[in-house]
């Protein structure tokens, strides 16, 4: 009886720790940025997070002003918030090409390498 109880406790602890490890990796973000609805703050904050790379989690309302733009130069994933009904709650207003990824190289062969 005592041996069975010890096995049950060990198994329970193992399952609980496995759940905690799995749950923490599911919600691990490299950067979390909360919108301030202010173009001077929001564009800079998102740009800094994007430059770090990885997964960027955006929360709240972001204002990119008239011409605000975040340049994507790293391999990133941008995720927004959802409510309990599955509707988007993260909002980005304004900007000009709000998220822009320039060509990776100026030495790309575009015109002269086209097939005839």
What does this structure look like?
The radius of gyration is 22 Å and the shape is elongated. The longest helix is centred in the N-terminal third of the chain and has 25 residues, at 2-26. The strands form three sheets. Strands 1-2-5 form a three-stranded parallel β-sheet, with helices on one face. Strands 3-6 form a two-stranded parallel sheet. A two-stranded parallel ribbon has the order 4-7. With 116 residues, it is α/β, with parallel strands linked by helices. Helix content is 34%, strand content 22%. It has helices at 2-26, 39-52; strands spanning 31-34, 54-59, 61-63, 70-71, 76-80, 91-93, 99-100. The mean pLDDT is 80. Helix 2 links the parallel strand 1 (31-34) and strand 2. The protein has a domain at 31-100.
Quick summary:
With 116 residues, this protein is α/β, with parallel strands linked by helices. It has helices spanning 2-26, 39-52, and strands spanning 31-34, 54-59, 61-63, 70-71, 76-80, 91-93, 99-100.
List keywords for this structure.
7 strands; 22% strand; two-stranded parallel ribbon; alpha/beta; 116 residues
Largest sheet: 3 strands, parallel
Low-confidence stretches: none
| Order of SSEs | HEHEEEEEE
Average pLDDT, all residues = 80
Give the number of DSSP strands. 7
Shape: elongated
- Secondary structure category: alpha/beta
> How are the strands of the biggest sheet laid out side by side?
1-2-5
Intertermini distance: 82 Å
Helicity range: 25-40%
In terms of topology, how is this protein built?
Blueprint: H1 2-26, E1 31-34, H2 39-52, E2 54-59, E3 61-63, E4 70-71, E5 76-80, E6 91-93, E7 99-100
Parallel strand pairs: 1-2, 2-5, 3-6, 4-7
